[in-house]
Design brief:
Bound molecules: D-xylitol-5-phosphate, zinc ion
Largest sheet: 8 strands, parallel, barrel
Order of helices and strands: EHEHEHEHEHEHEHEHH
Number of strands: 8
Strand content: 15-25%
Structural class: alpha/beta
Shape: globular
Helix content: 25-40%
């Protein structure tokens, strides 16, 4: 198991009237990345943020920006997110987009390319793409909203994908997203995930952002 677990704070649960200071608080407390949930009201019912907000995040921090595209036709917006300063870009397999073309483009721009799959999408749907990606984003809730309950049926999928990656692309990392809290993070870690996205467990922690980050990072120690 890697010793380099990464915590990616999802601003979906941040207070947008104070976005820069919320990002800085997460960074200061030990969040490694900032996760940006892009939703278009079509691929998922919710409508959130676009390249303009990603560029604002870029001005607020120097830590990597982890852009999660939950949009139809993701290829159209890749240049805008690269320009905005994205470091990792995740595209959903369920969009039917030309994933190899998108992955090529993302990597040619010097970014990490990630393929995302929903809880109901089987592992086989991404098998052929595993050799070319830098990351696989395993959704542990149905995408669209923060604050949902972790779907533990996804745990065997994480282990299965880790096993396949070890054979064809051992450097690639698995990211988990949805319902990550101080209990579920340990399960996802044991299953084989290395990158952990959390929105409500960080930005809605009753004792504040730093306490949320510390509670999650504590699970990396053991
Ligand atoms: C859900 C988003 C997640 C979400 C996670 O569609 O992709 O990144 O912000 O929120 P929590 O951590 O509250 O489940
Ligand atoms: Zn996300």
């Amino acid at each position: 198991m890697s010793q380099n677990q990464i915590l990616s704070a999802s601003i979906l649960s941040a207070d947008f009237t104070q976005l820069a200071s919320e990002i800085k608080a997460a960074e200061k407390a030990g969040s490694d990345w900032i996760h940006i949930d892009v939703m278009d009201g079509h691929f998922v019912p919710n409508l959130t943020m676009g390249p303009f907000i990603a560029a604002a995040c870029r001005r607020a921090t120097n830590i990597p920006l982890d852009v999660h595209l939950m949009i139809e036709n993701p290829g159209n917006l890749l240049p805008a997110f690269v320009e905005a300063g994205a470091d990792t870009i995740s595209i959903h397999i369920e969009t039917g987009a030309d994933i190899p073309e998108a992955v090529n483009y993302i990597q040619a721009q010097g970014c990490r390319a990630s393929i995302a799959l929903n809880p109901d999408t089987p592992t086989q749907a991404v098998s052929e793409l595993l050799p070319i990606v830098d990351q696989v984003l395993v959704m542990t809730v149905h995408p669209g909203y923060s604050g949902q309950k972790f779907i533990s049926d996804t745990l065997p999928k994480i282990t299965q994908i880790r096993k396949q990656l070890d054979e064809v692309n051992p450097e690639a990392q698995i990211e988990v997203d949805g319902g990550i809290n101080q209990e579920t993070i340990a399960d996802a870690l044991v299953a084989g995930a290395e990158i952990f996205v959390a929105a409500s467990a960080i930005f809605k922690h009753p004792q504040g952002i730093a306490a949320g980050v510390h509670a999650l990072r504590k699970q990396f120690a053991g």
